[in-house]
Structures are given as structure tokens and as C-alpha cells.
Amino acid sequence: MRISLFAALLALAIPVALAQDAPVYKLVAKDGVFDPATIEVAAGKKFTIEVTNQGSGPMEFESKDLKQEKVIAKGAKSSFVINALKPGTYVFFDEHKPDAPKGKVVVK
After folding, report:
1. Where are the domains of the chain?
2. What is the pLDDT of residues 13-54, one digit of tens each?
3. Is residue 94 classed as helix, strand or coil in its secondary structure?
4. Residue 69 to residue 67: CA distance in whole angstroms
5. Which residues does residue 70 pair with via DSSP β-bridges, in sequence order?
6. Phi then psi for 46, rounded to 5 degrees?
7. What distance in Å separates the CA atoms of residue 59 and residue 43, rounded to the nearest whole number?
8. 49/57 Cα distance (integer angstroms)
9. The domain 22-107 is classified under which CATH number: 3.40.50.150, 2.60.40.420, 3.40.640.10, 3.30.70.100?
10. Which of 26, 72, 79, 80 has an alpha carbon 20 to 30 Å from 19's alpha carbon atom?
């Protein structure tokens, strides 16, 4: 029975460890503008995007391409684990500021 419990705990720990090894790309959102506006990532590798909202109000990180959507309060931050992607360009934007420039993830 102890071996089964150990195996179960190990099975839970492995995905967490693998997610921690994924590179983290930090974005700052300020009233619809992202800095940096473009991030480059390796194809076929999982990664994390961390968004910090330094704008004057809430923002909504939106990406149909990346299948991510999250409202982030003023002064807050949020992270998204993105599964491995094929080469290409994936667009993201602040849904609360639809006329602001869009950001992109370039996968090579």
C-alpha cells in the first residue's frame, strides 16, 4: 500500500516539475499595449506566458490562436501554460481595447 501511495504522489509531482522547466515569457500590458509586442518561442516546446497588468483598469488577455482568455485586474498578474505549438504566428490582444496594437507569439 505504501508503494501505491508513493507512486500516486510521484505521478502528481512529475507534471508540476515539467511545467516548472518550461520557459517563462513575461509581458506587461498597459492600456491595450503589450511590452514586448512580440515574443519568439521554440516550436514543439511547452512554455508559459506571464502577463502583468500595469494599465489604468482591468484588461482581458485574449487569443483565439492560443486558446486563452483571462481578465486581469489592474495591478495583477496571471500566467498561462501554452502547450507545444507548430511554427507560425499566434496573435493576442486586450479585448477591452480592440483598437490597440495586437501582440504576437512567433513560433520557430
Report:
1. 22-107
2. 555 544 557 899 999 999 999 999 999 999 999 999 999 999
3. strand
4. 7
5. 61
6. -70, 145
7. 28
8. 20
9. 2.60.40.420
10. 72
